[in-house]
Amino acid sequence: METIGGGFYWQDMTVGRSFKTRGRTITETDLSGFVSLSWLNEQLFTNSEYMAAQEAYTGQLAPGGMLYLFAEGLAAPTMEGTGMAFLGMELEVKGPSYVGDTVHLEIEVIEQRAASKGNRGLVRTRNSVINQKGETVLVYTPLRMMRGRPEE
């Protein structure tokens, strides 16, 4: 019997397949908790008077690292029970993100192959974090090891 709610097997992640996640709004509580947890006590993230004096920004900035972790949380259902290992990535911040922004993740499979042993494969995706204005604010390309379909 098939269990619903699990992630994709590597065979399901064919090159060219794409999908998007639900959205998530960045809150002041998110920023405060992340800055406290990570010790990113930079004025860009902790001092509203300093930020108000910066002409380049239009609100309270959210760290790129926080956006990446939000994206991984949004992507988690695609790997639940099937993700085996995170093997590396490239990451590029394309633009600022602010408290109050709502972001979602658009995922495209760009590489897929069987692993050298076992019922598993390697899958690389291009993950784009998109804000409510349709702007791409972060792109990363994780390579993951994923389980194969159970052998029948």
Give a summary of the structure in a few sentences.
The protein has 152 residues and is an alpha+beta fold. It has helices at 28-38, 43-46, 48-52, 64-75, and strands at 18-20, 24-25, 83-88, 91-93, 102-114, 120-131, 136-140, 143-147.
What does this structure look like?
- Strands 1, 2, 3, 4, 5, 6, 7 and 8 form an eight-stranded antiparallel beta sheet that branches.
- The protein has one domain (10-147): Hotdog Thioesterase (Thiol Ester Dehydrase, Chain A, Roll).
- The longest helix is centred in the middle third of the chain and has 12 residues, at 64-75.
- Helices cover 21% and strands 32% of the residues.
- It has helices spanning 28-38, 43-46, 48-52, 64-75; strands at residues 18-20, 24-25, 83-88, 91-93, 102-114, 120-131, 136-140, 143-147.
- The radius of gyration is 18 Å and the shape is elongated.
- With 152 residues, the protein is α+β, with helices and mostly antiparallel strands.
- The termini are close together.
- The chain contains four helices and eight strands.
Furnish the topology, listing elements before pairings.
Blueprint: E1 18-20, E2 24-25, H1 28-38, H2 43-46, H3 48-52, H4 64-75, E3 83-88, E4 91-93, E5 102-114, E6 120-131, E7 136-140, E8 143-147
Antiparallel strand pairs: 1-5, 2-5, 3-8, 4-7, 5-6, 6-7, 6-8
